[in-house]
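We modelled the chain as a single entity of 510 amino acids. Its sequence is:
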Amino acid sequence: MKEAKRVAKNTGILYAQMAITVLMSLYTTRLILAALGAEDFGIFNVVGGAIVMLTFLNAAMAGASQRFMSFAQGEGNFKKQKNIFNISLVLHFFIAIIVVVLLEVVGYFLFDGILKIDIERIGVAKLIYQFLIVSTFFTIISVPYDAIINAHENMLFVAILRIAETIFKLGIALFITYTSFDRLYMYGLLMASLSVLLLIIRQIYCHKKYEEVDINIKKYFNKPLFKEMTSFAGWSFLGSSSSLIANYGQGIVVNMFFGTAVNAAQGVSSQVSGQLGAFASTMMKALNPLIAKSEGAGDRSLMLKASFIGSKVSFFLLTIFYIPVLIEMPYIFGFWLKKVPEYTVIFCQLLLVRNLIEQLFLTLTSSIAAVGNIRKYQIYKAIITFMPLIISYILFSFGYQPYTLYIVFIIYAVCNAGIILYFAKKECGLSVTKYLKDVVFKSVFTFIILILLTAIPNYFLEESFMRFAVVLTVSTCFFFVVVWSIGLTISEKSMVENIFNNLLSKYKTK
């Protein structure tokens, strides 16, 4: 119960932050699209869009380092935490150097016939790519600091930093709206500069706040631990980098066949998906330290229990936002953007479906990482990750529509779920049958019932703000009823009742 309260508190802090930042972020996207235009917005997303993907890479790699930090905290070993921090610094410095060299080599080929960019804008596109490389270097070497913050579950600082980041991005959007300089160039420069600034703030904060952030590589070097962390970080980097390349590769493949205008549609759909998905990923940030600490303390039962509940709750958190958006997306996009790029609606709808599938199995990847034996899992994951790009390239060659890419990635998400279940059973002792019954089937059935009920107003009302309001109201009302009656097991209902009763009793005593 103590762990549940801590996770609930951290999640509450992050949700308060989300309430502030989501609308600001969506408004910022509208300003950027209007200021740059579809063509330049598409160029930024295909060339500099990897700056956005660095958030994913940073989170994935920080999760790997955090696993060791949280595990050591679960063991109660403070000296080991200093060892882990210093070794992590060395590892990520060398990883950063390797990635920068690879990006420079890849950039040579990207701008030599692969990307379709107007000749007048190719110079700016190359500069944006260099901004990306600088941002990448600082992102990777700052991973150990993110791991420290996550391991300490300091979600208040995370929330403050994200709010500051959102305000800065809004300021950048306003600046490029009125600047007389090249807007695409300034946007790329300022976005890369912002990522470096935020990373420096994290470093300064950690050095002042946490005792284990003590840089003395010679003193705290531990050869056996170095080998263990190198192996884990290497395999983790294989999985996270392959996912990064595959996601970034979507934009390149689409650009090769359809040009920058369709890349603009990808950029908008990714922004919406990212903002809505952040509600569930926020809870994961609060839950992951508990999973690693439970394994470090030798409590495998608590770790698996947290994985079960985390997957289901994070899925439902997505559902409450996704369902009205999926149904009313054409109206929302028409109201939100001055001009909606072609394919944006269908791209976003398919991307949200993919996110829902992946969310059901996300906590299991944290459990596999907590146990530590990730080599085979990351190899299988890396191999299957590239298959959608290859298949989509072949289908585009035969004249298939751009949205085919997202259909292929939905199929990939289902296949990847099978791999996760297999390794969760093998490494963590997961009961696949129980997981499918209590988490997957209940969650999917709940989603289907909710979307059918929420869609009813569409058969009686014309597209309008009133219909959107009705859909939102119906969705919210039915959500709590359906989730309680269908989505939760008896033990989960009992847990919710206990938490609610504890909160109520505290309120009455005050």
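As a brief sanity check on the tokenised model: The chain has 19 helices and no strands. Residues 453 and 475 are 8 Å apart (CA to CA).
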